[in-house]
Amino acid sequence: MVDTVLTPQEALKALEDCYDALLNALPDARRAEDPRGVLSSFFSGHSYHPGLDALLRDYTPLLSSHVEALALAVRTCPSDEAKEAARCGLERLLFYPKPASLPEEFTLVALEGHGLPLAGLLSPGDRQKLALRYAKKTPPRRMMPNQKKLWKALSEK
Description:
Elements: H1 8-31, H2 37-44, H3 50-76, H4 80-94, H5 102-112, H6 116-119, H7 124-137, H8 145-155
Helix pairs in contact: 1-3, 1-4, 3-4, 3-5, 7-8
């Protein structure tokens, strides 16, 4: 929960800093992979990617909180500049550098849906442009449920 209302720029900066920390933590989290392998994780119920799982547990509430703070800041100050901050924040969650491995990419894909509260704050034109870019990055037929939900929100007129 957000205790104070930040300016849209402050909220965007906090979101970007949090996301940068997540991106920087990805390689180390990936190295914490379970050496017993995929097959043993299947039968034992243990995660094959405990480092990435821990990263998701740590960063999911943080990113949600930062997105909430940005959405609140934009709703409190609904200027064009504030909407631009919401667009930048959403772009940050959707268009990240290509991760080094598929498990790292799935970790970031899992977090994309957290940008949903920002989608409705964009102008219809910005939503449409973002929806097109998003569909180029990940075609809708290949989207995970959280991605498809966000893409539909962006595609609405």
